[in-house]
Amino acid sequence: MAAAGQGARFGQPKQLIELAGKPLAAWSLELFARATEVAWVVVTCDPRQRSAFERLASDILGPKLHAIVDGGARRQDSVYAAVRAIRVPADIVVIHDGARPFAGRSLLRAVIAKACQSGAAIAAVPVTDTIKQATESGSVLATVPRERLWAAQTPQAFALATLLEAHRKAEREGYLATDDAELVERLGTANVGIVEASYDNLKITTPEDVVVAERIAAVRRTGPERYGG
Prior knowledge:
The protein has seven helices and eleven strands. It is α/β, with parallel strands linked by helices. The protein has a domain at 2-105 and 156-187 and 202-222: Spore Coat Polysaccharide Biosynthesis Protein SpsA, Chain A, CATH 3.90.550.10. It has a four-stranded mixed sheet. A three-stranded parallel sheet has the order 1-4-5, with helices on both faces. It has a two-stranded antiparallel ribbon with strand order 2-3. A hairpin with a 5-residue loop joins strand 8 and strand 9. The two termini are 17 Å apart.
């Protein structure tokens, strides 16, 4: 689980802020604690929050906690460090953002199942906004057809060997991607499958996102789990 972000757009590291009565990262940790499909969990965190994460992750995950790893300067560095820290047999590795609290068991199972079939899979939602391509000067160059556009989320799951090679290739070439699926796409050895998720599976990026997340959490307390959540 990636939880080492600096929270530049949020104004502070956000992984331990309170959301509906518990730390933000606790939501994702609880998902993996409950998931019988997940045997071990590696957590990346800001070194300054390591002691807090050691307590939180140990309390929630118990024996499932495999390692806590200091995160790097970028998300890609943090994920690579976590993957290299795996010291147990694993065929499929799941990557999930600790700031994305509402991924649910059904979505996690579906992404893992798709990755087992194709070697790689992501959660995503269809793009609903009209997308404009712009010139360098900031004017509209073209309208991009959105019929086949998807907004990527996490969880994302990959064959361990494929993910490691994708990160090694990026390291050799100095390539920076926005998610792990992009690195695997560049490798060209696996088809990245898409599992349709929920728009509720948002990532907390700004303080305004917390307001929306509190509303979603309130609904979750009184209703059944939605497929993507």
